[in-house]
Amino acid sequence: MTQGFDARIRTPFAVLGVRAPADTLEEIVYLPPATPALAPRSAIAKRVALQLERYLDDAEYQFELPLALAGSVFQVKVWREIARIAPGKTRSYGDIAAKLGSAPRPVGGACGRNPVPLVVPCHRVLGSAGLGGFMGGRDDFPLSIKRWLLCHEGVLAPAH
């Protein structure tokens, strides 16, 4: 589970596994908090790590990374639409579906297959009646990440 990463970056909510072969970011994977960190092994992995740290320091930070988005034509359209959501803002699956002439469920499926979360901020996409899912599921670990990120960006009030 922790193999094949070019970096593993510790954050307050998870360890981020970064895959960045060649000169593009291909994947960010949320790993359990106990996963060991790994210093960046390449220039692009270091660039990704630095930008992730900037985002953690400043929720308004805008990523500028070369991406290798491997997915269907529809998935890439959804990811591009999600990438337009500014920090501190949200949209619903239904909003994005209407914009793309689709339905909320396929948009949710594309969100769940987003290979570069945080950079393409799928955590900013909500269900019509609440948080919705995250990372293709509704378990506590993924939803705790989504809640943390939305609190970090000022969308949700921190739980006390």
Q: What does this protein structure show overall?
A:
With about 160 residues, this protein is α+β, with helices and mostly antiparallel strands. The protein is built from five helices and five strands; from the N terminus they run E-E-E-H-H-E-H-H-E-H. It has helices spanning about 45-55, 75-85, 95-100, 105-110, 140-150; strands at about 5-10, 15-20, 25-30, 90, 125. The protein has a three-stranded antiparallel beta sheet, with helices on one face. It has a two-stranded parallel sheet with strand order 4-5. Strand 1 and strand 2 form a beta hairpin. Helix 3 (about 95-100) crosses helix 4 (about 105-110). It starts with 6 loop residues before the first strand and ends in an 8-residue tail after the last helix. The mean pLDDT is about 90.
Q: How would you summarize this macromolecular structure in one to three sentences?
A:
The protein has 5 helices and 5 strands; from the N terminus they run E-E-E-H-H-E-H-H-E-H.
Share of helix among residues?
A: 25-40%
Uncertain parts? none
Distance between the termini: 33 Å
Strand content: 5-15%
Largest sheet: 3 strands, antiparallel
* SS-based class: alpha+beta
Order of helices and strands: EEEHHEHHEH
Record the strand order, biggest sheet.
1-2-3
Number of helices: 5
Overall 3D shape: globular
What would you report as the Rg, rounded to the nearest angstrom? Answer: 15 Å
Mean pLDDT: 89
* Total DSSP E strands: 5
Blueprint (SSEs and pairs):
Layout: E1 7-10, E2 15-19, E3 27-31, H1 43-57, H2 73-83, E4 91-92, H3 93-100, H4 104-112, E5 125-126, H5 140-152
